[in-house]
Amino acid sequence: MTWTNESLALHFDKLINLLLARMAEMETAWERATDIARENARMERERTAEQLDARLEGMNEFREQMRDQAAKFVTRRELWAYLGALVMSVTAIILTTLAFGGG
Predict the structure, then answer these.
(1) Interior/surface letters 51-88, b for 16+ CB within 10 angstroms, e for the rest
(2) C-alpha dist (Å) from residue 34 to 11, 30, 37, 47, 59
(3) I need a labelling partner for 32 at 20 to 30 A (CA). Which of 15, 38, 83, 94 fits?
(4) Contact 14, 22 (CB under 8 A)
(5) What is the DSSP annotation of 17-73?
(6) How many angstroms separate the CA atoms of 28 and 17, rounded?
(7) pLDDT for 2-25, tens place per residue?
(8) What percent of the chain has pLDDT over 70?
């Protein structure tokens, strides 16, 4: 086939149009892929946030249990007061026993 200026121009126009169409397809595919990637990232963020919320809720429940448990503990002051009273009672028993001829 012999090329004329007109046939060569038509041939290159056809090639350019095919190339432009393919580029448009690739751009559409790229946009679709990035949309999917963005949606996947959004869904992952939501899932991660839900997991974090669940973990934080569990931690809050644990803290509340620890707070309740700590409220039931005897304080050092109360313990020393109880032990002091106990020592006084034992001392009084010992003194009474000794006073009445025991031991």
Answers:
(1) eeeeeeeeeeeeeeeeeeeeeeeeeeeeeeeeeeeeee
(2) 34, 6, 5, 20, 37
(3) 15
(4) no
(5) HHHHHHHHHHHHHHHHHHHHHHHHHHHHHHHHHHHHHHHHHHHHHHHHHHHHHHHHS
(6) 16
(7) 889 999 999 999 999 999 999 999
(8) 98
- In whole angstroms, what is the distance from residue 64 CA to residue 54 CA? 15
Sign of CA dihedral 93, 95, 101, 103: positive
- Mean pLDDT, the chain, whole residue set: 94
* Torsions phi, psi for 44 (to 5 deg): -65, -40
